[in-house]
Structure of HAD-like domain-containing protein:
Amino acid sequence: MATEEAPESTLPYPPIHQDKKFVVLSDWDGTITTRDSNDYMTDELGFGREKRRELNVATLSGERTFRDTFREMLESVVAKGHSFEYCKEELKKNIILDSGFREFYRYCESTDIPVVIISSGMAPLIRAVLSNLIGEEDSSKIEIVSNEVIIHPDGKWEIQYRHPSSGYGHDKSQAILPYRRLPNPPTIFFFGDGVSDMSAARHADVLFVKQKPDGENDLHLYCVQEGIPHILFSNFGRALNIVKQVVEGKLTVKEALAIGQA
């Protein structure tokens, strides 16, 4: 468990789920969705994919912080004159749900396993796209722990980081560690894909890392580099089988991770 002081949060946290045997915490962009909405904005509405990848690589190497490179990406969208509402509507039209997430969510709902989105994006964008993809009713049941947005009187906007003192902007480990401190902590399944998930990676019991067809497998590269056991998955339908076996006691956490490393 991390012993360093937790970064101060500018935003409240929802209460953690007490007395649960299992909890699912998942990144949003590029994990529950097939494409990262912030990457979409940067690539299509900001300074483009080439510059974004340069900043992603600089973050992965430790040369730059995610907080600063991500802010730079979003600033490039604002600089092109795109309002926050325009970006929201573009994302609703272009972001697609992971093909297996509905079935995965239904299983979790039927077995009383909370699903919480832990994101480095902005809550209003996530909520709008999630509601568009799965409907208002199901969307309202899923908690979102993320950053926020500040919209200025002139229409320009900027990200409000949850943890501005952290190099992550939103240190996702702070959403996991409270569960670790419970008298009877649950088994934590964490799903992620990119550099924003690095702070959370080593704190999950079972870490699922999404394998991307475009080759942008940054979290996988980080886990290999750091020796963090993880399971590669292409969609939530494939991950569901392993989750079910752990929940039903057919696989231990260690056995599940061994499958992922095979």
The beta strands are 22-26, 115-122, 143-151, 157-160, 187-192, 206-210, 231-233. The CA atoms of residues 17 and 114 lie 7 Å apart.
